[in-house]
Amino acid sequence: MTDMPGRIVLDGIVPARAPWSAIVRQGQVLRIVDTCSQQAVDALFYNAHAYHERYSVQETLINQGSAYVGKGTHLYSSESRVLMSVVEDTCGRHDTVAGACSCEGNAVRFGPQTRYMHACRENFLLELARYGMSKRDIVSNVNFFMNVPILPDGELAIDDGISEPGGYVDLLAHMDTLVVLSNCPQVNNPCNGFNPTPIRVIISEGHDLAACGMS
After folding, report:
1. Distance CA 54, CA 175 (A)
2. Element (H, E) at 124
3. Does residue 132 contact residue 120 with C-beta atoms inside 8 Å?
């Protein structure tokens, strides 16, 4: 799992329930590691030089023709350009439809007694403020390692995670990309196995870009 190709320029642990962000330079690869399994990781993506260009779930789903993110998926921006692509994936399926949990959403779905609980939206707000952004800059996100089956009636379910301990996803940056993560604090549904755990983030460079599908 730690034997990544290329030269490692960042290797860190994101504590349970915490936010994280970094700029992943063009040609670098970000690895997100589900260290203990069944830990959802919410992710936002922005052009690092023009924050108004950011991840678009609509462009991504239209271009790939699938409801899920996995190896080979290009993550498109609001300008119809590729921000990052999934070049390795041990999980096989990640959600980009269910969105991020919020205090308001917790109160509606799980009862008013849960409103005080920290949520991904609050993590995003805290981290985006470091870059001069606010709640208006939060868009639809990717939920790595989150198992969201689509039921026969079209409804979305949130089920037990399917990633193994040490499972990972590798994201190749096609442009300098600001990546903002929320190591999801949700304990009211099984997306984290009801027990949020740390994740590991590794950025490496010096990859064979042709082998990654980027010349």
Report:
1. 12
2. helix 120-128
3. no
Report pLDDT for 187: 83
Q: How confident is the model at residue 213 (pLDDT cuts 50, 70, 90)?
A: low
Task: Name which of 84, 107, 106 is nearest 158 in CA terms.
Answer: 106
Question: Hey, what are 149's tokens?
Answer: 């089956």
Dihedral over alpha carbons 158, 164, 170, 176 (to 10 degrees): 50
Half-sphere exposure of 25 (CA within 13 A, CB side): 7
pTM listed for this prediction: 0.92
Neighbouring C-alpha atoms within 13 Å toward the C-beta of 193: 16
pLDDT tens digit sequence for 108-123: 676 777 666 678 999 9
DSSP type of residue 159: B
Distance (Å, rounded) from C-alpha 172 to C-alpha 209?
A: 9
Q: Are 177 and 23 in contact (CB under 8 A)?
A: yes
At 145-154, the pLDDT tens digits run 999 988 888 7
